[in-house]
Amino acid sequence: METIVSLAVTKLADLLAQEVGFLKGVDDELRSLHDLLQWIEALLKDTDIHSNKDDERAKLWVNQVRDLAHDSRTSSTTMSSKCINTSPSAVTSLPLRTFVVLPSKLVILHELHNNIGKVKGRAQEIYNNRTFAYGSIGATSSDPFANKERQPPPLMSRRPSPVLEEEVDVLGFDAHFQSLARMLIGDDVNQLRRAVVSITGMGGAGKTTLAKKIFSDSGIRRHFTCHAWIWVSQKYRPREVLETIAKDVISMPKKESKYRSDKELNQEVIKYLKEKKYLVILDDVWSKRAWDSIKEVLPDMMNGSRVLLTTRNQDVALYADRQSPPYDLRFLGEEDSWRLFCRKAIPTKCSNDCPPDLEDIGRKMVAKCCGLPLAIIVLGGLVLTKRQSKEEWKKMLKSANWQLRQGEEQISEMLALSYHHLPYYIKPCFLYFSIFPKGSLISAKRLMRIWIAEGFIQPRGQETILEEVAEDYLEELVHWSMIQVVERHDHGGIKICQIHELLHDLSISLAQGMNFMHISSNDNEKNILHKPRRLAFHDDKSTSFIAQLKSTDSTSRLRTITLISIYKRTSELEKFFHNIKLLRVINIQGTRIKSLPNDIGKLIHLRYLGLRCTDIRELPSSIGKLTNLQTLDVKNSMYISELPSQVWKMQRNLRHLEGTGFSIKGQPSTESLPNLQTLSSAKGDTWLENGLQKMTSLRKLGVHGVTGTCKVALLDCLSKLDNLNKLAWKAGQDGMVPSSILSTSQHKNKLQVLYLHGRLEGLPDVTCMPASLTKLTFELTMLREDPLLKLGKLDNLQVLRLRHHAFVGREMICSEKGFPQLKVLELNSLLELKLWSIEDEAMPKLRELEIETCPLRMLPQGLPKVTSLQELKVIGMNDNFCKRLRPNDGEDWEKIKHIPSVAIIPARSVKMSPLSGKVTARKRFSKNIGIKTIFG
Fold first, then answer.
1. More exposed terminus of the chain, fewer Cβ within 10 Å: N or C?
2. Distance between CA atoms of 13 and 28, rounded to whole angstroms?
3. What stretch of H or E contains 775?
4. pLDDT for residue 66
């Protein structure tokens, strides 16, 4: 709520700060409105309005303030548009203050004066009504639950992100785990049939958490030769689930499976599983119909295969297998609940370290959670943000009216409580999760870029890189236990995140109640509020609503439209953008849209244009008029091979430009894209010589097809890009990558991530390589000298991937004490490699090792000494190599028995992709659990 008003105040302040001569005559009115909104903003920040959330007077006042703030932003945005449209020739070359006076000025001034007067009059009336809503609001600071730390600090030191993923909370689940393990791997002869073991319980009870623990347990995994995790969900699509099973079970790429009929896919999956003893997890099954459609591809060969199913519905569990009684996940006991709370709420994460004077109060709070893990975790995240004192904890217990009720509604008050006490600047970031379909895996990078485009992220003190501020906000939501981390980058930052379905329901309920977001689906199309500000479409049927919107004025306030993986009625979508002039965000990832309107350049307020994985053929030349655009994402839109030359005219605001092997027409000017931070993956061309060195803000650069003079130009420019920390270089037709790319003189010792694709003559001495390197990938580098000898001396290297002829020698050696920080090592398709040895104290921190399609004869003798190793993946290796790894009797079993997770797919079980000609089995080992479509 406070953020909406803050954004309105900021917008008005920006307009006033421009000292626009055009606005003489209305500037005093603007300043007066700005000051009045500042008072309302301060009032909201000083008062805990949510402590009165059940008061209808308070709700009415808050809704009126919210509408006022939105109208103020609309007026100021429209004002900017009027100014720009009045002097179109000045749009890209002159600041606002130089606009000339045109004959239409008086008409526009009169219109603006009237609009501002109306908004100001409403603002004064609403401000005066504050006493009706709250009495003597703001007169005192006696509110026991007011958050005194709502304002973001003027300058926060960057919090280091943990390198490892957050531990899964399984307190109190040990007995459950042991019982389920016996049901899955018991030796009872009657258990040879394909049994379906079901975990039942209400939302938030920990069904998925327990299933994840089972799925990742090394002992259970070794008992089965094939494993798959399928997330089904309430609104599952049979075809999508079938494609996911084909991908997870037989490593069939989605590109290949989409050309197969249902019958063909069924037959291939069944044929494969008939020869396997498999474990398949079906998470979140809601209906008998869902089970009926899935069971057809899970053959019963009387070999002890198992299906583990999680569901809220006991009828579904009984229907799936009446011989296996559902395992009902009960609530946590008192002590387990207390320990889980302390793990979240006490900085030391130990219940014994809770101050004695707080324990009684804390236990009373925990008791209200009734043993429900999600409620306890969210409560702990909330308490962690408060001062650890008896007074604060008593206020928490006394002031919050969250006595739990029966059924799934029992934690709604708890979840809402945590939302209401989020810092005001993070609330809209949480509400934005409502835009994604339930259960989505969400790209943190793209999510944060949309937050910035929406205006949720503001510079903080001297910390002006908005992406870093947004990353802190996301980490803070994790800190509050409102968001789950699915996967982190190697450097520790969040890569993929997810929101629990109950918290997702909360975000939708709050977002729609505030008219922050309208979620259009087949269930609620008719319930749309008037003039929505953001629209999200969650299924194909809901797109019929687009035609209805076009015939009304309901789009006049629309700022955001999001359609994710919508396949139908895109012709309506292509015409939809014409009359929505205030759009800031268009995200139509995965739709079948084929074109954008030629006049899309009229959307001068557009900040984010997400066209990832679409069928768009080309971008209109008018895109160059989108001078406020911050992100242009056309990645994996395979038909877009060339961008128009007008891209160079976007100038100062464009921050991220991503595609897949695209070129850009024309040549950059001397002022082209100075604030561009991301450019990938662009074709190397003459623009490198004229424009790259001007892109001084670049942090991530990906260039392909680099040849000839472009190679020299690129090398020359790299030394001038002071902020560059990620570089991908893919060689051109000559197939050569200069060895000097690894020299510190090219990167000023700041480069952290480097990907090289193409023949590399050799490696420089380690003293010449950037000491800052943390991640290194070589592909088709054709090195003849053992790269491990030199790379092992890089003190900060954490990830090393050698792929597809990166090394063409017969032997590699990890030298003594080499790779002191290495955590991930991948050896993939090194087709000459026969011998590999590991000397003493090498790779002391290695956690993941992947060996794929290499002619190695055996594992290194020194592998048992790498005691840090947690995960071994062996893919596409010959039968003799795999036989050596068999439990107990394999010749190399002693080398790997200390590793908790071992996954082996022999060469005869690996599918080759006819589209790419590369082994695709490794995709089945993605860290992402569930359907692996990444949204955002």
1. N
2. 12
3. strand 775-779
4. 61
